[in-house]
């Protein structure tokens, strides 16, 4: 079956230079962007139920810009004054630079890794083991066993949650292919369409946990990334379209 319409469950790329647009033109497909999930912040009342006092902490661990936004939002709502002595540990430099939206960027108090994984931050965290870390996270987050193994003094603080971005009753769902990036996206699909039957619809995904969620849901996985010949979702999508849409290639 020729693929004519693809739904990518992410926000539309801000740049026109995104590989998705090149793929759409090259293979004559309509690629639409529509997140299946969205992030919403906990209210200050909900956060207080965790009995976490932000002023007690001397350092923060950030794994995403979303975490930064909700950390400073809650601090403002709770009227918490962040001292200049607070240290910030971020998984990448781009996440660290995002702090400029809220604070004066001083290298002596901001540390970051290169890989995007929290493992890469461990040496810096161990070096500053005297700090008391607060770790803003979503209600669904990855295991932090490596912090426990290295005896980091930290507290996870749930500050935002991932929820289903529901489809409107009159919203069309006529896609030949669906592309997912998280297990939450699969949960949202089944929540929005409890009687969903895959039939000829192709499903692609990025990451092993998403692949597992697709199979656990009894669905067929047709395109998977990353893999050696396709390190990104766009690379995997192009390889697949090249095979099934040969006649539409320009």
Automatic annotation (TrEMBL):
Domain of life per record: Bacteria
SUPFAM superfamilies associated with the record: HemD-like
CDD domains, per the entry: HemD
All copies of domain Tetrapyrrole biosynthesis uroporphyrinogen III synthase, residue ranges: 24-234
One Pfam family matching this protein: HEM4
Xref: InterPro entries: 4pyrrol_syn_uPrphyn_synt_sf, 4pyrrol_synth_uPrphyn_synth, UROS/Hem4
PANTHER family the UniProt entry points to: UROPORPHYRINOGEN III SYNTHASE, UROPORPHYRINOGEN-III SYNTHASE
Protein name: Uroporphyrinogen-III synthase
Source organism of this protein record: Coprobacter tertius
